[in-house]
Amino acid sequence: MRIAIVPGDGIGKEVVPAALPALRLLSDAFGLDITYDVLDWGADRWLADGTGLPDDALDRLPKEYAGVLLGALGDPRIPDMAHGREILLGLRTGLDLYVNHRPLHLEHGTIDLYRENTQGLYSQIGGSVGSRGRVSVAMDECVYTRDTVERFVRHCLDRLRAAGRRKVTLVHKANAVPHTGRLWQEVFRAELDRFPELTGAEEYVDAFCYHLVRDASGYEGVLASNLFGDIISDIGAALMGGLGLACSASVCPETGFALFEPVHGSAPDIAGRGIANPYATAMCLAMLLDHTGHADAAALLRNCVRHAARTGAATPDLGGTGTTVSFMSEVTALMEKRLTIEGPRQARRLPHEES
Ligand code: ATP
User: Fold this and answer.
1) DSSP 3-state assignment of 88?
2) Whose Cα sits closest to atom 4 in ligand 1?
3) What is the pLDDT of residue 56?
4) CATH class for domain 105-239?
5) Of ligand 1's atoms, which has the minimum distance to the CA of residue 281?
6) pLDDT digit string (tens) for 238-272?
7) What's the predicted TM-score (pTM) here?
8) For 58-73, what is each residue's pLDDT tens digit?
9) Measured by CB atoms within 10 angstroms of the end CB, which terminus of the chain is less buried, N or C?
10) 270 lines ligand 1 (CB under 6 A)
11) What does the pLDDT read at residue 342?
């Protein structure tokens, strides 16, 4: 299995290299034969030669790699994020990565948040007029096609059923945004008929956010359009304990190709200081391992990351004194210990922890 690694910008250049020894260890211990290439996409390359997403990238990636791990994109030298848009939106739309899965690991359990990743307010349809550099009228259109909503909802319901989930909530705003709202409701209700194991619920996005913060225990699976999903996942990250903890996978179910990235950005305020939390990046690796059928390796990594984060080895955002590198060294040491004591088959379970 070959993976494309894109550290990107800011703290991406710290958290991604720090997480790679864990991948190497798991690859050796479980005989996974994982190799990777590090690609230099990001602000430096954009500023040096104007390349964001290289011309042949969309062709080559699915042919040569099982997936991409991306650190972060964003750089104060490129205030409009033109390079980030070209790379991220280019990958999402060019490789049709329409399902964005953002698991929220909370005290009561995990909420599987699914965000539609290609249309809605991110369709880049709109325009503005103005004069002397001042915008006077601006418009961004929210566009959804039935095909896109259908395939997204169907895939998510299928995944939720496979994961043994019972309840799924559609988040929308059909009272104020009626056209796309109604399309989502229609499709959601129709698709739910195919999944008798699942109970459907619908909630306005504002009420949903309120309830999520007050008491998230009522939610299991959540489906949201592009913008709502983006916002909810940051609220989810805050509930988990910070942006450094939240991971995501953008998947094209038909090809199986996927892009794994932490929810956080390049965090220029802490970049270069060695204190960025690599937790989310390590959890992205666990998602990648799960996605490629290596559930044991994924569970071991996930458990050791969680365990290390509860100790003084955690990075300062979690109240610890660890650095990006020392935290991952602790995770790797924990994994080595488990592998030595238990062997790869049993190592996934830490005492008193679920896998
Ligand atoms: P960008 O412009 O790339 O989105 P940003 O700073 O606006 O960057 P984030 O990178 O998402 O947005 O970060 C928001 C804040 O959260 C940062 O100021 C940083 O302090 C904190 N943060 C984000 N990621 C991490 C992390 N991995 N470890 C520690 N703190 C983090």
Assistant:
1) helix
2) 265
3) 95
4) alpha beta
5) 27
6) 999 999 999 999 999 999 999 999 999 999 999 99
7) 0.91
8) 999 999 999 999 999 9
9) C
10) yes
11) 73
Q: Which two tokens stand for residue 324?
A: 């990006």
Number of residues written out for the chain:
355
Same fold, 1-97+252-355 and 105-239: yes
CA distance 223 to 168: 7
Question: Rounded CA gap, 41 and 87, in Å?
Answer: 8
Q: What is the pLDDT of residues 269-310, one digit of tens each?
A: 999 999 999 999 999 999 999 999 999 999 999 999 999 999
Check pocket membership of 294 for ligand 1, CB cut-off 6 A. no
CA-based nearest residue to 268, from 59, 45, 12: 12
Q: Are 219 and 110 in contact (CB under 8 A)?
A: no
Give the atom of ligand 1 at the shortest distance from the alpha carbon of 278. Answer: 27
The answer to whether the CB of 243 is under 6 A from ligand 1 is yes
H or E element: which one contains 150? helix 146-162
Amino acid at position 98, single letter:
Y
Whether CATH 3.40.30.10 fits 1-97+252-355? no
Q: Spell out the domain ranges in the chain.
A: 1-97+252-355, 105-239
pLDDT at res. 53: 97
Strand order in the sheet with 199-204: 35-38, 2-8, 67-72, 258-262, 247-251, 99-106, 109-116, 221-224, 167-172, 199-204
In order of 58, 86, 287, 319, the CA distances from 94 in angstroms are 6, 10, 22, 40
Residue 45, C-beta contacts closer than 8 angstroms, at least 6 positions apart: 51, 52
For residues 65 and 110, what is the distance between their CA atoms, to the nearest angstrom?
29
Neighbours of 274 (CB within 10 A): 15
| Residue 351 confidence (pLDDT) | 45
